[in-house]
């Protein structure tokens, strides 16, 4: 473990009581933070291993430190030594320069930098470096694509500003990607509070583009910062196991070539992210993205297909619920479960001997089928077709086979192809359809890199015609200035 901070005074806080501590050591291993300290006699209770605690204090270097969601990993009764693991974040606030704060007390903190982990991308833009020697300029053609600049549009009720500038680059402190929000001339100021509102969808969107899960390692905010994004007034360090994301899907090829990432970032964040955010609130896109990424890295083909078919069914159900006018039960389910179904079972019980007279298993089988009597016939199939129509997926023979045949045999028999090649093709078809449903709903119109084509270009164009772009008013607060 690497010792990160030494706390010289602090307090452990629980739901019902607190404990002053003389010191504590904060260590980090593989991205996870651990705390080691001594508790006062009488504070510990045997029920505490199932509870969460927080810690506030000061470090030996004069920082205010706050640690959220601590859980016990060890407690020794003879000397009251305790060890905790952090399951949320370690927040550091520089208090040495607090005299500066007087001018900023009424100003809400902005998000300055966000450091993300697991994101794989080729950068779209390059930094020009001019070299000079004693005799003049050196003609040294060495283009280094080292950052991606793009605009972000997100309109949320209660927040006026909706137009922000993002700069993606390699972090100077770790093998992570840094997102810089400080280059905001001609854009808006994104406050920390505002960012927290759409942070979950922002991560889900990045994970979707990435083809692998993305996590936030650090958030930097406050009144001052270093220009390279290595430190700031207030830093949130998140505690979770490091994510290398060795394998990611390149269906959206942001990690293939800088020209691809240039087009994708520019269109995705300005035109599609706002749609992703609002549709996720209704359809839970994040859950589907998580399933796609999980299935991509799962080694077993059957398990991967099962993950995706469940994701398709869940997304179909979410879509029907969002419409507010679909009920897959013929009779009110409460009435069915509490009155009608028990009455039917009671009638069957009286005829049990006659039912089993020719087949000893007949009663058991018939009784088990009662559960499906109140469901609309082919309700799952119809829900899927409704979702596919919403997602502008062409309904050809390939797609019909998925809905009516492959899905059924996969769920009931664990089969979705006669051999490995057919199973692989059917898996890729399902993967691509799920991705295309989300991409089409959010009107993403940039590069896609399918492994298997489940529809022709003509079929795709017919199902997914061009849409008239909405007239959007971009609202921002910062005057344009030359950097």
General description of the model:
The two termini are 41 Å apart. The protein has a six-stranded antiparallel β-barrel. A two-stranded antiparallel ribbon has the order 11-12. With 483 residues, the protein is of the alpha+beta class. The chain is globular and about 95 Å long. The mean pLDDT is 90. The longest helix has 26 residues, at 258-283. Helix content is 35%, strand content 24%. Helix 1 (192-210) packs across helix 3 (285-297) and helix 3 runs antiparallel to helix 10.
Features:
alpha+beta; 6-stranded antiparallel barrel; 17 strands; 483 residues
Tell me about the largest β-sheet.
6 strands, antiparallel, barrel
Overall shape: globular
- Continuous helix count: 11
**Mean pLDDT score:** 90
Q: Which regions have little confidence, pLDDT < 50, spanning 5+ residues?
A: none
Order of helices and strands: EEEEEEEEEEEEEEEHEEHHHHHHHHHH
Task: Report the C-alpha radius of gyration, rounded.
Answer: 28 Å
How many runs of DSSP E, i.e. beta strands? 17
The end-to-end distance, rounded to whole angstroms, is 41 Å
- State which percent range the strand residues make up: 15-25%
Biggest β-sheet: strands ordered side by side in the sheet: 1-3-4-7-6-5
Helical fraction equals: 25-40%
Structural class by secondary-structure content: alpha+beta
